[in-house]
Amino acid sequence: PLATAIVGAARDRGLTLTAPTDFNAQSGKGITGLLDGRRITVGSEKLLGDQTRSAQWTERADAARRDGATVVFVMEADREADRKGDRIAGAIAIADPIKSTTASALNALRKDGLRIVMLTGDHDLVAQSVANRLSIDEVHANVLPSEKGDQIRRLRDEGRRVAMAGDGVNDAPALAEADIGIAMGTGPDVAIESANVTLVKGDLTGIVRARQLSTATMRNIRQNLFLAFVYNSVGVPLAAGILYPLTGLLLSPIIAAAAMSLSSVSVIGNALRLRTLSLR
Known about the structure:
Elements (H helix, E strand, L loop, with lengths): L1 H11 L8 E6 L3 E6 L2 E6 L1 H4 L6 H12 L2 E10 L8 E9 L6 H10 L5 E3 L4 H11 L3 E3 L4 H13 L5 E4 L5 H6 L2 E5 L4 H6 L2 E3 L5 H35 L4 H4 L5 H20 L8
Parallel strand pairs: 6-7, 8-9, 9-10
Antiparallel strand pairs: 1-2, 2-3, 3-4, 4-5
Helix pairs in contact: 3-5, 4-9, 9-11
């Protein structure tokens, strides 16, 4: 998503895009490549190191992060230069707007007793800015893709049942590690394949509706089991002649067949009530 945003902004400005050589991508950190005899690096502080920590860049980057923007640095150097020849050419601030429905979805999940945890590879300031707007108390920032799976395992080792929602390639290992992986339908195929549930619209309110539907479905299943148990616990002994020694009463095959059909109709009719369920 970050790369798509940067390329899209470049095209909107009419810039000429040239394919690099010797291209290399480091998951969760950034990319490097050769372009017109220069080595270009685009990525986070994890990739660029101390070059980004000058007062000039730190102040400007932190200001953007407090507004909830992810900051990507661009560094260039002559092809033959060592790292001492590298210099920061600029920084790109990319804001990922919070959906208008996200806060209400998280509030609904909290009311259901769920503990909300944010895992992100973003900077602490960006993560905290978003967490403050969404009232999320537990935040883990600067998390590499491989570390997200470790966080899920840690929670499961504590005896938690974990549902993980994610929409990126980097989320795929964590989605597979969670008890329930929830992928956004707007995300890449690898995330969708790793998950148990896919939200078509990529909206967190889908999690609330999915929980409502699953709760109603499990309640309906228990009701159907109860109905089937009642019919069988009453009908089978009667058909076996339990009352015959006392009353001489035997269950007519016609009545037994009708009772069996009524049992099926009751269970199916109760299941069809799910069609009227209102998911809010």
